[in-house]
Amino acid sequence: MIYLDNNATTRLDPRVLEAMMPFLTEEYANAASTHPFGLRAHEAVKLARQQVSQLLGCEPQELIFTSGATEAINLAIKGVAENYASRGKHIITVQTEHTAVLDVCRYLETRGYEVTYLPVQPDGLLDITTLQQSLRPDTILVSVMLVNNETGVIQPIQEIAALTHAAGALFMTDATQAVGKMPIDVETMGIDLLTCSGHKFYGPKGIGALYVRQRKPRRVKLEALLHGGGHERGWRSGTLNVPGIVGLGHAAELCRQSMKEEASRIGALRDELEAGLLAIPGTRVNGNREHRHYNTTNILFEGCDSDAMIMGLEGIAVSNGSACTAASMDPSHVLLAMGLDETAAFSCLRFSLGRFNSLIDVEHIINSTSILAEKLRNYILN
Ligand SMILES: Cc1ncc(COP(=O)(O)O)c(C=O)c1O
Questions:
Q1: Section 285-292 average pLDDT
Q2: 3-class DSSP state for residue 306?
Q3: From atom 8 of ligand 1, which residue's Cα is the shortest distance away?
């Protein structure tokens, strides 16, 4: 299997598994217990908190461990909405956000909040003036993702955060596709809340984190979603997932050490892949190619059905980014927001590379995809 679906999830790095193993076997104590056994688990959690905070440029105590990005997003948006409701009930986000953000916003609309879903330009970038015009005195939160999971488009969050703060609102970013892969500094970027997930950067599934600003210039307050034993400073009760947290921390540390090298190596592979795929007639890239994450390319193959391509690319894992539910296959809301029609949106594939890909994978995929695209088009013509 050649795996080019790293934006969906990444392989657990064997070094991360090794770090987790003691905590899945003999070091099973509860991190809240005060006996020496528990203290060792507590120390391991403390180290992991430091490792993740170093990756984000925050203080360790500004992090809340969650079950992943979806939970972190729910806690951030609902937690802010409830806490700041007396100041206002208006939230701004973008049409191309992950469904975790969009669905929380839709839920809040049923609870009396008003949400503005900003459009994007055909290249996937937010138009800053539309944001400026949408900010209101009762806006409490602006949530804009850093890297889009389908196209890799990078939003100018530093600029967005500055405008948000000038209007007196909080700025949140879903950085699930960016953490561990590009430098992030919550201070210089002006981030108040940030979400991430371990399985997107070679850590385990079922663990993630929420950063909540506690330092100047503003201390963010949150209402908890989960009540109970008061873990994570009362923000997220429930016995800590020590092996998961250790894995998250170790994965963060490995990413921090190899970030520069991986960016240039994986970026070169993506460029090679993209050039090869664009040599196939009737193809083009979706999304701004300059402001784009180095591991992703989303390509339109005119006249080819993406599901047929996924099935036809035997031994290769890629994605079409469409939301698949039991009842329906919807076209990608991200591509529709960028102005593609339904037929075009159903003709796109996302290739997302990662740490374990090689040039051989890339060459194989270019070759298989060009043969398949020609076959599918001939099939339609005949
Ligand atoms: C941008 C983005 N946000 C949020 C999520 C949800 O992450 P998790 O699976 O950890 O809940 C994903 C994962 O698909 C994502 O790509």
A1: 98
A2: helix
A3: 69
Task: Provide the domain limits for residue 300.
Answer: 2-6+259-381
Over the stretch 49-63, which tens digit does the pLDDT of each residue have? Answer: 999 999 999 999 999
Three-class SS state of 162? helix
Q: Mark which of 253, 286, 320 sits at the end of a domain.
A: 253
Whether 266 and 248 map to the same domain: the answer is no
Instruction: State the DSSP code for 198.
Output: G
Distance 195 CA to ligand 1 centre (A): 9
- Could you tell me if 125 and 244 lie in one domain? yes
Alpha carbon of 355 to ligand 1 centroid (Å): 19
Asked if 118 contacts 164 with a C-beta cutoff of 8 angstroms, the reply is: no
Tokens, residue 99: 């469904």
Distance CA 159, CA 286 (A): 23
Is 324 tagged catalytic?
yes
Beta strands in the chain (DSSP E): 2-3, 63-66, 90-94, 114-118, 139-143, 170-174, 193-197, 208-212, 283-285, 296-301, 316-317, 348-352
Give the total number of structural domains in the chain: 2
In 3D, which of 357, 342, 337 has the Cα closest to residue 297?
357
Provide the pLDDT confidence category of residue 77 given band limits of 50, 70 and 90: very high
Residues 334-361: pLDDT tens digits? 999 999 999 999 999 999 999 999 999 9
